[in-house]
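To: structure desk
From: M.T.
Subject: fold request, one chain
Message: Could you run this one when you get a chance? Sequence is below, nothing fancy, just the single chain.
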Amino acid sequence: MKEKIITKAKEMFLKLGFKSITMDDIAGEMCISKKTIYKYFANKELLIEESVQIIHTEVNEIITEIIAKDFNAIEENFEIRRMFDDMFKSTDTSPIYQLKKHYPEVYQKVLKYQVEMCESCFRDNIEKGITQGLYRKEININAYVKFYYSLIFTINENTRSEREAFALEMEALEYHTRAMATEKGIAELQKHLLNSIT
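Reply: Done. Structure tokens follow.
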């Protein structure tokens, strides 16, 4: 039952927002009593925290699957962006924005895991791109990981609309890639930018 509650809560939080969904809403949607939810979760914050951990796990699994498909580094980044778009397309408000604004304590708890996952993913992608001749060999990998991470999280933490956040993230991805790319990388980037428009 606990897993079912988390699954339903996660769906509702992502679709309608962490703040607007109440324990009553979740209970009503599941045709169970609110008391049943409180049996597993002492408060809404704990339910949000566990839901967010599940979202992170799912995101990590999908990213791992994308990486296993052996795309080139630039293509990989576009595939990951597409995955985020599919996953959060029914969401009006950016989940990270919501968490930081309405549940800062939960946000701080999940932030550490999020940072580690993203920085590891960005680093692996840059190293892969250098090996493939798509990114310049002389770049400072640690600095570029920090730059890109700061860009993405500043967008998500401060942009209320998920649509607007997605559009800005695409701009950030182009900016990040152009800053690192070789001529071969620029040609690859242009191809994916054209595909993302059509």
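Reply (cont.): The chain has one domain: 49-197. Let me know if you need anything else for the meeting.
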